Amino acid sequence: MEFGILDVLQLIGALGLFLFGMTMMSEALQKVAGNKMRSILASMTKNRFLGVLTGVIVTSIIQSSSATTVMVVSFVNAGLLTLAESISVIMGANIGTTVTAWMVSLIGFKFSIADIAIPLIGFALIFIFSKNDRRKSIGEVMIGFALLFIGLDYLKNSVPDIKAHPEMLQFLTEYTQMGYGSILLFLLIGTILTVVVQSSSATMAITLVMLSQGWITFEIGAAMVLGENIGTTITANIAGLTAKTNARRAALSHTMFNVFGVVWMLIVFYPFINMVEWIVGNDNTNTDSALYALSMFHTLFNLCNTFIMIWLIKPLEKVVCKILPEKKENENEFALKFISTGMLATGELSLLEAEKEIELYTERTHRMFDEARKLTLATYNDKNAQKYAERVAHYESASDQTENAIADYLYDIDATPISTDLKNKIRDYLYLTTEIESVADRCYNISRSVVRRNSENINFTEEQNKELNRMFDLIDKHITALEHCVKSNFTDEIARKEIFSIEEQVNELRYALKVYNIDQVNKEAHSYSSGIHFMDIIEECESLSDAITKIAREVKL
Predict the structure, then answer these.
(1) Together in a domain, 262 and 353
(2) CB of 351 within 8 A of CB of 433?
(3) Helix (H, G, I), strand (E, B), or coil: what is residue 240?
(4) Residue 213: which domain range?
(5) Does 386 reside within a domain?
């Protein structure tokens, strides 16, 4: 039998269609359940058993263990999950991914679902053209499901029929008759294949097709399944490359968990295989029973591995902490901390990293104000004055870079297929980021006013510093209230009302200090030049207060 270039391309195209359908269905399911995924992960990881259950549920819903593990790594990076909680969720994700194998073996090979796939796509169009974002996503789920099984159908038909042409199997014979050597070889093939296609579900489908067509035996298929469990860990490790230490530990724990499972399974491989065949009743002649046996092997292996490792979460945590110790040196306080891991599969989940980065941006701006305050209250000949001024300048430079990075990231999310609600939220976050940068600009302007004062060898009087402290105390409370609003996604109405209240106090104080300054200059309590610098700082504080109030008034997250 000839198998030419067109046949090869058809085989690759069938795999591509399967992968596209799988990706489309997974991303659409994430869009439908995006915000719920966050609440599930945040609330259902209180103990190891709930963590495992969470991983099973989330992965079963979104049909992608890779998406779940990348999500978990990002949540650890954002500080929403502890390392121990993330390990339990990842264990559950390994069990959840077995649903795909059962779906393919029970539906994909039982009858030709491709026959109803086209009508299903036609039905999905009703949802696709809906103005409701949720219904659109449900339509995408249907189309992804249909394409997945159309791809699987083409994949089955593209693989040469071994029964009709047994000579094609001759080259495999020498590789499948080496006992444990064959098991290790096909374990490696399964690993490499999963790394290449970036989907253990796709590799599992390929393995099931090869088994159904007689290319491989059940034992060889089981070896490939073990390899797929190792290969699927690459995605989370890539996601954790630029993340914080704890996120990289979560990714490493995923690898160690799966590798440990493969090692003990290799020790009991043949007895375990015999047990699975006994449960399913696989007689090596019935294709359906072989497919069920492989799916059962996949499920039982992950269940057993999780049952063993669930009691060893703490030791595993200690091991990954020793392998990846916390950096001795202090992390650069001006560096981005959260959006460096790259986007998740959908905007609904990617936005989390932007939210955490904006929280940190607000905290840094508060620290910038603290440095500007120290500089203002220091004398012009204070040896620390130059240090304070340089710190504020560093914060200003970092603020500009952070604003651009967050904005670019938000625009990247906006360019993906997302809901109208999410687009509105992104608009608010862009506005919020711009206004936080405006607050940082006012802090820098305060610093510049003080630098000009110092260049003229002028010191504020004790009375002026006392009045400045009154204003600075109000601004400090103002920024603190803004931080509470940002952390609560502006659901903290008490903090929002406090912002408006403080603005009134700032305006009243600014007017009182303007009168006070004129009076003090007239009394020659301080010089005219000193009064100008004093009021410049007061005016900048008032502008800073206006920027914060503008945020509270305009942002409706």
Answers:
(1) no
(2) no
(3) coil
(4) 5-161+169-322
(5) yes
- Number of Cβ within a 10 Å radius of residue 492: 15
DSSP secondary structure letter of residue 84: H
What span, in angstroms and rounded, lies between the C-alpha atoms of 526 and 32?
A: 65
Q: Residue 54: CB partners within 8 Å, gap ≥ 6? A: 40, 41, 44, 45, 88, 89, 92
Coil, strand or helix at 89: helix
13 and 110 fall within a common domain: yes
**Whole-angstrom distance, CA of residue 358 vs CA of residue 336:** 10
489: left (phi over 0), alpha (psi -120 to 50) or beta: left
Last residue of a domain, one of 262, 290, 322: 322
The answer to whether residues 440 and 368 touch, using CB atoms and an 8 Å cutoff, is yes
Continuous segment of H or E residues that includes residue 153: helix 133-158
- We report the CATH number of the domain holding residue 380 as 1.20.58.220
Q: What residue type is assigned to position 505 of the chain?
A: Q
Main-chain phi, psi angles of 365, to 5 degrees: -65, -35
CA gyration radius, the chain: 31
Number of domains in the chain: 2
pLDDT at 531: 93
Kindly tell me the burial class for residue 326, based on how many C-beta atoms sit within 10 Å of its own C-beta (0-12, 13-18, 19 or more). Answer: exposed
Q: 295, 322, 349 — which closes off a domain?
A: 322
C-alpha 460: how far from its chain's center?
Answer: 49
Residue 266, in any domain of the structure? yes
* pLDDT (0 to 100) of residue 431: 93
pLDDT tens-digit series, residues 243-295: 677 778 888 898 899 999 999 999 999 999 989 888 887 665 566 678 888 88
Residues 318 and 349 in one domain: no
pTM, rounded to two decimals? 0.68
Residue 332 covered by a domain: no
The residue with tokens 């058809």 is 10
Other CB atoms within 10 A of residue 415 CB = 9
Q: Are residues 266 and 221 in the same domain?
A: yes
Residue 221 · residue 293 · CB < 8 Å: no
Distance CA(394)–CA(438), nearest Å, equals 16
Q: Where are the alpha helices (DSSP H) in 456-492?
A: 462-487
C-alpha–C-alpha distance, residues 56 and 60, integer Å: 6
Please count the CA atoms within 13 angstroms of the CA of 312 that sit on its side-chain side. 14
